[in-house]
Amino acid sequence: MSAPADGFVVELARSGREVTVKPGDTILGALRNAGIDAAYSCEEGVCGACEVTFLAGTPEHRDFFKSPEEHARDSTVIICQAWCRSDRLVLDL
Predict the structure, then answer these.
(1) Do the Cβ atoms of 38 and 77 come closer than 8 Å?
(2) Band of the pLDDT at 31, cuts 50, 70, 90?
(3) What CATH number belongs to 8-91?
């Protein structure tokens, strides 16, 4: 499965709100642009401050915080760097 070229939708499970993440943006950036508070610090994918549990979808991990093995085992995503391989990613936010 390849990443959607035209972006994807992030659904926030707690509020039911949906935000579109466009190419060239990040999940964190799209959330901030929509006025949604999310924890973050470095925005470089190295600190883990923006780590969020995902409930559905297939994230494409682009961070340096976790190894590929850790990503395969965990159900979290570093939202300052991740993309999505599916059309929708549901976050526990």
Answers:
(1) no
(2) very high
(3) 3.10.20.30
